[in-house]
TrEMBL record:
It comes from the Eukaryota. The lineage of its organism: Eukaryota, Metazoa, Chordata, Craniata, Vertebrata. Residues 6-33 form a coiled coil. This is CENPP protein. One of its GO terms (biological process) is CENP-A containing chromatin assembly. It holds the Pfam family CENP-P.
């Protein structure tokens, strides 16, 4: 009986140690991201936030204007989701490297298009110069549920090799829409 109780406590201790380890890693990631900003940048951000709270910002946009803009953006997003069938469920971003004019971030994005689930993992390299910002996607990894849609795997691997997200989303939207039409047609005849 005592051995069972000891085992339960040991299992609980192990779970707590693993949770502590995960929280420590998360804390270190947050600390790493915060060290990318200089003291001057942090002070400038604090000052601009204080000005906004005091109403001294240059925008002078009222809360009703901001609510109207938010409503308009939500309407546009809803339209795009209905139009393309793509709905994003989760997104996470981690800054891997940041120097003066170069930033590398790792993104993980998941969602579905009609009835097809997808998950994307990629790195985004942003290069800034005085006039513009250029972005390059690398290490694109696309994961999709296979099963009855195994014919799309060749396209997915090709899109992953070329790193072209726009082509992937356009093709996914079209493919998923026709899969949905096909499914409805077969349901009609059953």
């Amino acid at each position: 009986m005592d051995n069972n109780i000891c085992q339960v406590y040991e299992d609980e201790i192990q779970l707590l140690e693993e949770e502590i380890k995960l929280l420590t890693e998360k804390y270190e990631d947050i600390q790493q991201e915060s060290t990318f900003f200089s003291d001057e940048e942090i002070l400038m951000s604090i000052n601009s936030l204080q000005k906004e709270f005091q109403g001294e910002s240059k925008g002078n946009e009222s809360p009703s204007d901001l609510k109207a803009q938010l409503g308009s953006l939500e309407t546009d997003l809803s339209f795009l989701m209905k139009f393309t069938g793509i709905q994003f469920r989760s997104h996470s971003k981690k800054t891997v490297e940041k120097t003066g004019n170069r930033t590398v971030q790792k993104h993980v994005l998941s969602g579905n298009c009609h009835s097809l689930f997808f998950q994307l993992e990629f790195q985004l390299l942003e290069m800034r110069n005085k006039e513009s910002v250029s972005a390059v996607i690398s290490d694109l990894n696309i994961v999709m549920e296979s099963g009855e849609n195994s014919d799309v795997s060749k396209f997915v691997s090709s899109a992953g090799e070329h790193g072209n997200l726009l082509t992937f989303f356009r093709s996914l939207s079209s493919y998923a829409e026709w899969c949905e039409h096909r499914r409805c047609t077969f349901l009609h005849f059953k």
